[in-house]
């Protein structure tokens, strides 16, 4: 079985009301695989109608004015959110962002200037990964609802802090894992959990490999960039253009590479479909790993080159001997990005471009029932990821990408990454939030933090 591959460049899906109407119409005649189940985020019967959202957008600030923030401003924010403030430690990027957010009245380089603003109700955290948790918890502690891009956390311990602050403050926290609002992925999850195909035995997730690059030359810090603040919690180091902005993800000081990039999406969907019990342990076996630089005790030996893994295969064994395979690609299975579910009575595939396999074709003849559709905690009304956040801010539902499940699933990616860095097999005890078989590996659950930038 050959499967079409997804574009390796991450895109944010906007599923408009018009598009959902088209899917619903297609479902009536059974012409689209995903249309057999146009699910959406949970919404109660008294949810605000679309016209109210147009009339009353929520005032928000954008923290981090790079590519994903620009995409949101162009196609996702309106009519739900009015962007009134912009912040980026690179002043040039914040000023350039005015082209897509011309109504923003405030531009600054330190988000703390916006925390006390009562007129700003929500924060969109679109910074590099290593700043996500710090900005998110500060915003929640100042009464803001938060939409944070994935990955929400940089380490397992940061997940503990986020949980504590979110529960203490009662703020709405939506994660930008927008695949949860995509009918294709929702159909895959509901089918896997329906029991129609028997038990799921194996899920293979292909997320692409990271690049090699370097050694890069140090340079002067560009005018307008606060390099010290960009680094934040990460160690002080000389400026390299390749450490910053578009290529930060390939440095373990700022990100988890592909494991917390595409892994934060596809592993999330896989574990959502499996209904993973967080109280159980997971065996994580490193079958293959190649880093672009030599590693010693889990740390890169070259400070001038990309250092996150660029080839890997990880086998995770969940309770019931269910296998979750996380790979850079699955070319031998016919795809390089996506999720393959193998069940007792059939298999099927999903990525952002395609939902395929005989069990999907069978849905045209015997659609999923209402009970099977709502069995994963979703209502029958399909809404976009951004509208879901808007509704959640108005108290109508827990966000579809809730922080609890996101942290639980992302921790598997974090621990798998630790295994890759050490080249060791690990036993992750989620209930105890520790690695049971490797004392040294537990040191990586909490990252070193520079004074003044701590996540506490």
Automatic annotation (TrEMBL):
Where the record annotates domain Gfo/Idh/MocA-like oxidoreductase bacterial type C-terminal, the positions are 217-286
The residue ranges of the Gfo/Idh/MocA-like oxidoreductase N-terminal domain are 59-176
At the top level, the lineage of the source is Bacteria
Organism of provenance = Roseiconus lacunae
Q: Which InterPro entries match?
A: Gfo/Idh/MocA-like_OxRdtase_N (IPR000683), Gfo/Idh/MocA_oxidrdct_glycsds (IPR050463), Gfo/Idh/MocA_OxRdtase_bact_C (IPR043906), NAD(P)-bd_dom_sf (IPR036291), TAT_signal (IPR006311)
Read off the PANTHER family from this record: BCDNA.GH03377, OXIDOREDUCTASE FAMILY PROTEIN
Q: Which PROSITE patterns match?
A: TAT (PS51318)
What transmembrane ranges does the database entry give?
none
Name under which the protein is recorded: Gfo/Idh/MocA family oxidoreductase
